[in-house]
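**User:** Everyone, produce a chain:

**Assistant:**
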Amino acid sequence: MIRCYRICDGVPQFTGKEAGEPCPGGLVWCHVNGQEPAALDWLKAQPDIPEIARSALLARETRPRSDRVGDGEIVNLRGPGETPEDDPDDLVSVRFWAEAGRVISLGYNAPVAVETVTQHFMAGQILDPGDLLTAFAAAVTHPLDQDVADLGDELDEVELRLERDHARSTRRRVNAVRGKAIRYRRFVAPQRDALERLSTSSHLWLDDHDRQHLRDAADRFARMAEELEAIRERAAIVHDALTDMRAEMIDTRALVLSIVALIFLPLTFITGLLGMNVDGIPYAKEPWAFWGVVGFCTVIGLAVLGWFIARHWIAVRGAEEAED
């Protein structure tokens, strides 16, 4: 599907599949849906697009970039998609070929920014290619900035609930946050560089106002890149803390099992010795013999427990709180 729009004398028009000739001082913008073979055929048939620009528009795998080709500019930007559950990447790509009076954009997946920019275009707020690229840069920045902030907030919540949450579920949340931050940063950092290069381009259709907005967008992407790096490092620290907690929990349980086994080891020996079916067991006929053995075993168990406490193999909660 191809959607073309035109600005003539400051009046926006939707021209459907026909781009038409740009008005003097006006702008024609065509957005191509890369999922439609007919739309790709239309793009391939355009005679006045440089071959390098056409290849950049049709490329399946892209990263953010801004490169000058003659009097035009190849720009690739990435932002959140309209259908994140169906998109292979967290940030979907939209490619541009911009020159005086005309911009052609293409996306294989639908970024949220397209509808936002279309609304600005039809409201008469976009008058030249610089305005259009600036509007796209701002439109991908705002939702992505919120997503990065949400990642930080989610990691804050994980850190606050670290002691209460189940370690396994908390680890899954941390891994999800860390993975998303890594995937975002893969595109955020080069997008910052692309916007900085575009803001310094010498195209006549880029005025000072456009350059300032592009620099602002680049600055926000730089801040997001720093925040994503901090999130990744914090997530690694939280993951290490969870691993330490799990190891400490396993060590504590192993120690408790070992202590219980050591306490019952002498008791098992005594009861096994007295439980032999042979003659000559002392006091076997005495009525108090059973309770005597129980008392003797209790004394031995308490003695072993006291020895463990004296050797600090078992921590007493009251003593711990007093030390704290």
Observations:
- Residues 2-244 form a domain with the Beta Polymerase; domain 2 fold (CATH 3.30.460.20).
- Residues 318-324 have pLDDT under 50 and may be disordered.
